[in-house]
Amino acid sequence: MALSSSELSALISDGDMMKGARTQWARLRWLQKSIEGGLNKTWMPENADTEYKDLLTKARSPWLLFVRDCIAQGTAIDGYSHDGTWKEAWQANGMDARQVVLNREVIGLGYGYLLDLPAEGDGVVMRPLSAHTTYSTKDDPWDDSPTYALHKVSDKRWMFFDSEGQYTITGTPQKIEKLEFVAHEMGVNPVTMIANEFAMDGFPKSSIEPAIPVYKRIVDATFTLQMVQRYGAFPQKNQSGGNIAKDEAGNAMVRPSVDSLLHSTDPETRWGSFPASDIKQVADAVDTHIKHLSAVCQVPPHYLLGAIVNMSAEGIAAAESGYFRNIADHQVVMGEGYELALRKAAAILNYDDAASDTSSQVHWADTSTRSLAQISDSIVKLQTVGAPLEMLFAMIPGWSKTDALEAAEYVRENGTQALPAAVQANTQQTLQGLTDLQQQNPPE
User: Fold this and answer.
1) Do 379 and 286 fall within a single domain?
2) Residue 271 lies in domain
3) % of the chain residues with pLDDT over 90
4) 443: exposed, middle or buried (C-beta count within 10 Å: 0-12, 13-18, 19+)?
5) Among the four 55, 137, 215, 216, which has the fewest Cβ within 10 Å?
């Protein structure tokens, strides 16, 4: 039964929902600004000049954003067990692209939301909702879907979702000027949380937040490097004896610089210089802090430092092993949220079996570093034991589930030479490798 304006306002405003939303959104805004480096400040003297402050501004770099994106790039979905839901819900809504911003938010903030609603006709609408503007509550912490979800579209437009329908609020939740209700007949809340981790208490935690103190040390070290470059990289001059010219305020009028020549008419004047600072030591300190960031976030050091010198394939694999274990953990948890959202989409599309199939799984794009020869060798060996073509083609780097299904269908019907031109253009080298390996290792 739909709620009236007064009932909905009381539910949102008079309870803890609005208070909880504002508290959580304020925390997420602080976290986002911290990840972007906007809140980091390094101490400086009160009389710091403009040049000094400019060095601090230049010391900030988007390290945390880069680390967040490195992790999120390993969590791209490129397939789902049920083909109908995949094509009619996921691909029909452009979720291949929309998932990118959602995955980044899940890694950076700890969670995000995905909305499923019936579309006009027989379709489904899938849209990511930002955790910055969406808040959900559960009556039972073990429920898969939230009891209520509140989404802020703008200051004067809000949306509220429950198990019966969608409420569109014009005005504010405290003062509803106009209320529209549309039933979705799903029986559950259409909003699904995509979590970074299963939280035992409260909301899921960010993977980047623990690295904020390390990032602050990087900024401090970079600022020190800038200071040394500007003021200590050149030998500093000193003067002893002789008269020092001063202005009316008593300040020395001599200001040494790299493009000036000091001179004196006083024969008692003696000139000297201090040794230049060792920039390499400061630069090494910056690299050390970046390596600490790499360790905390489980991102390979060469991703951040770009230093690969005579590194073997085995060495690269060892350096990236922790990264891919971390990615696998994220995929397990995030996959549960995506699978729940896709089951909701299947229910809207009247795929009853897919909607109740809790064994259905999303397929994650393979972002690991493996050569084409290794992949081809694995495919041929698996083919000898009768592995399905769909699974074999899905192993090819750069191929989506759609590519794999299309290729398998054509191969069964017409052989490898009948593949579509678009597929042939992308896989000519792979198919040649497969042919060569099959000749070398014919099935028994």
Assistant:
1) no
2) 1-152+182-231+259-369
3) 49
4) exposed
5) 137
